[in-house]
Amino acid sequence: IYELTADIPYGISFIIDNTYTGYLLLFVEIGLALLLFVEERESGMLSLLLSKSMGRQQIAIAKLITLWMVSAFVCFLFYGMNFLFAWKFIGIGTLNRPIQTLTDFFYCPWELSVGVYLLIFFLFRILTEAILGTVFSWLGIFFKNGRITIGSSCVLFLVELLFSIYGSSWEKEITVEKATEIMDSKGYELGTI
Questions:
Q1: DSSP letters along the chain, please?
Q2: Considering the entire predicted model, what is its pTM?
Q3: Which residue, 33, 99, 127, 159, could crosslink 137 as a Cys pair with Cβ 3.0–4.6 Å?
Q4: How many CA atoms lie within 13 A of 10 on its CB side?
Q5: Please, which residues have CB within 8 angstroms of residue 77's CB and are 6 or more apart in sequence?
Q6: How many CB atoms neighbour CB 63 within 10 A?
Q7: Contact status, residue 99 vs residue 112, Cβ threshold 8 Å
Q8: 167 conformational bin, left if phi > 0, alpha if psi -120 to 50, beta if neither
Q9: Separation CA 163–CA 9 (nearest Å)
Q10: Residue 2, exposed/middle/buried by CB under 10 A (0-12, 13-18, 19+)?
Q11: Is there a contact between 147 and 130 (Cβ–Cβ < 8 Å)?
Q12: Which pLDDT does position 73 carry in this prediction?
């Protein structure tokens, strides 16, 4: 039996709730989408690519896979730096302790360690960044113009920024508080899990 001692998760909260990392990743996604899907059309390289034996579908799939791989790498790099900073300067404790030792997750019904929770968080962040990159790529394909794509991406970013300032944004939906609400067993009926 593991004795639970409450721990205020400053280091874990820093890793998960660092909003600036999410915004930097959003800019990276916009840049990658523009580079892969708009820049080739504007520089005239797209016609050269389409003259190759690969079809349009294979080119599009290769670009999406490249976008997802680079997004995963950049996400790992940014959140890895958050992890290293929190580990070195704030402290994160041992990662094999139960998630219930963190004050925000005291009522979590699942037997997760803090390390497994962080791994799940990172995987969902990578998935989120891949989806955002795909959306920005579709904007680039739809508008067929770099300036319009940048403008529409900036409008989306400003709307997101305003939502985050005034309380509701997709970035805030994956914070510790939201995860706590999802994992809180106080509201569950007995036997429904």
A1: -PPP--B--HHHHHHH--HHHHHHHHHHHHHHHIIIIIHHHHHTHHHHHHTSSS-HHHHHHHHHHHHHHHHHHHHHHHHHHHHHHIIIII----TTSBGGGBGGGTT--S--BHHHHHHHHHHHHHHHHHHHHHHHHHHHHHH--HHHHHHHHHHHHHHHHHHHHTT--TGGGGSHHHHHHHH--TTSPTT--
A2: 0.72
A3: 33
A4: 7
A5: none
A6: 19
A7: yes
A8: left
A9: 26
A10: exposed
A11: no
A12: 94
Chain position carrying tokens 């997802």: 68
What type of residue sits at position 135? V
Burial (CB count within 10 angstroms: exposed 0-12, middle 13-18, buried 19+), residue 117: buried
Q: What are phi and psi of 9, to 5 degrees?
A: -85, 60
Model confidence pLDDT, tens digit, residues 124-177: 888 888 888 888 888 777 776 677 777 777 787 777 777 766 665 555 554 544
Residue from 83, 63, 60, 74 nearest 28 by CA: 74
Query: Two tokens at 61?
Result: 């799939």
Q: Which residues of the chain have pLDDT under 50?
A: 174, 176-177, 185, 187-193
